[in-house]
């Protein structure tokens, strides 16, 4: 029911094109997954997602478990039907959010006095909802159970992703726990039409990454994820660890670099042999009035014979208030091309929903267009 096959390997780098087969269709890799946190890619209709090139979307287990509840989603025909998205879906395990959001809730003062930091034991994590401070528990068994109720094609192992400021001993402890939980996840899994993908952890420590890889490859999965590489480290570290993981994971499986979203990072990691990406960045930036556009000088995108620059522009800035130029001359998203920067500036200033929609679609298309170029390039060499 699930498989990964390499179609073409680049002769110039470790980049490759391939196909991941799932019950809801094929994912052509490299591929980017727009994030639909609560079961919707914010401001973008599923038909629009298809039109701009999305083949798979990611939904968050933590959020859907809290609201509307995984049992409700199951009753309503599971995620594909609930979201009216009939192509592949991936759900994360909730592992990352039970730590980060419990803490964010604490920082933001949501339900003050009730929210405490998440408590972790070998059985799982006790945490407090960022919505109302209510107490919950998710461990490997609970995470798989929730993900089975949600019904995505690819589900993720419940892992402990330590924060960036953790020392080696803490990272090692989190890794041992993640390894232990992986076995429990596979034991808890009952659905045959879902692929459970193991996650490599180990922070910035190569020996721990190596230990993690030796452990997860025992499960012979067509997809392995690399977690904990984009949680605040320098780009240099992200590249170094990603390259190490890509070099050491089995060639015949797809590699999913979790949470990587800047165009230049995606390109770099594709050149190391990563195949799947997800990030909230394109849509989150859009909601802040920020767009990715091609330009003469700026952030460099380089891979094989692809070379261009782009910049992140903040449309709220006064300098765009009278600009009759289009957002990006070379964009083919068809959603942005007939609007001037001045009009988009106006929409952003007025907090008009249309502005967020146009920029969200445009930023996502920016990534898809880039990935399509890369695929053509890999096939050429
Ligand atoms: Zn566009």
Question: Notable features of this structure?
Answer:
TIM Barrel; tRNA-guanosine(34) queuine transglycosylase activity; three-stranded antiparallel sheet; 2 domains; single chain; globular; 39% helix; binds zinc ion; alpha/beta
Strand arrangement across the biggest beta sheet: 11-10-6-5-4-15-14-13-12
Largest sheet: 9 strands, parallel
Range of strand content: 15-25%
Query: CATH topology of the largest domain, anyone?
Result: TIM Barrel
In CATH, the homologous superfamily of the largest domain goes by the name Queuine tRNA-ribosyltransferase-like
Mean pLDDT: 94
Inertia-based shape:
globular
At CATH level 2, the architecture of the largest domain is Alpha-Beta Barrel
User: Which secondary-structure class do the elements indicate?
Assistant: alpha/beta
Gyration radius from CA atoms, angstroms: 20 Å
- Tally the beta strands: 18
Task: Note the topology.
Blueprint: E1 3-9, E2 16-22, E3 25-29, E4 31-36, H1 46-52, E5 57-59, H2 61-66, H3 70-75, H4 78-83, E6 89-91, H5 95-108, E7 119-121, E8 124-128, E9 135-138, H6 140-150, E10 154-156, H7 168-188, E11 195-197, E12 199-200, H8 206-216, E13 223-226, H9 235-248, E14 254-257, H10 263-272, E15 276-279, H11 281-287, E16 290-295, E17 299-303, E18 306-314, H12 341-349, H13 353-380
Parallel strand pairs: 4-5, 4-15, 5-6, 6-10, 10-11, 12-13, 13-14, 14-15
Antiparallel strand pairs: 1-2, 2-3, 7-8, 8-9, 16-18, 17-18
Helix pairs in contact: 6-7, 7-8, 8-9, 9-10, 11-13, 12-13
The chain binds zinc ion.
The site of zinc ion has 8 residues, from helix 13.
